[in-house]
Amino acid sequence: MFNGSRKYSPLPSSPSSSRASSSSSSSSSSSSSSLPATPRRSPRALPRHSSLLSQYSSLLESYTEGEIRQLISALVERYSQAMNSGGHELPLFPRAGSRRKRARARHKPCALKELEVSVSELGLGYESDETVLFRYCSGTCEAAVRSYDLSLKSMRSRRKIKKEKVRARPCCRPLAYDDDVSFLDAYNRYYTVNELSAKECGCV
User: Fold this and answer.
1) How crowded is the C-beta side of 163, counted as CA atoms within 13 Å?
2) What is the pTM assigned to this prediction?
3) Which domain holds residue 188?
């Protein structure tokens, strides 16, 4: 196409480059429209996990054989105690959720609950194997605090009220009692106890 007098000489190349050029030319002729292959990215390493493993391994290496045996025996004993107490594994460290549950349990409102017990367990001096349904009041009365309770608490803190036994907050107590309870004791003697179980609870 050009009639100029300048001549172009090919660049010197090594045998390997010539082989590579010949192979590339053959591959380009076979698939001229295909895109060049991109190198695959190697999977990322996990330095955090490896560092943790190295830390734990170095930590275990710092223990003596006797200390490791004591640690394993303590863990086995803790696990066996958990299995004997109900089949649930005890956590090595207390969880924040358990603390929140205990806080919610302490702030449950005043309510009526019941429990089936024997007459002897009532603590009234009767010996009997008969069982009764004992209803009782349980819960807190934070929502029932009145101005009287706040003022009384302030008077106590200022030592205006010293000797008297007063309660500066409402208490969950029975407002009404259930029917009388009758039973036979261990000597076949008949007894009736009144105002034993709560019927209605409230903050007083």
Assistant:
1) 0
2) 0.47
3) 111-143+170-203
